[in-house]
Request: fold
Amino acid sequence: SVHQDDSVDYLKNWTGPKIDLLYLDSSGVDTHVLAEAEAAVPHLADDAVVLIDDAPKRGGAGKWAIPYLLE
Reply:
């Protein structure tokens, strides 16, 4: 399926099955990626894998999302 929507709104309103694999490759703005992660967490499977593009070891798009997801 193809959906056109804001990624945060789409994840907040997700009604499908639990998400096993989530690949975040959006604006690259660290706060937006954090908002995506926050919206996705309620929908993630217990053993889900989350990949974040442009997330170097320090900083980048995953600056805030990675610590949040690891909590």
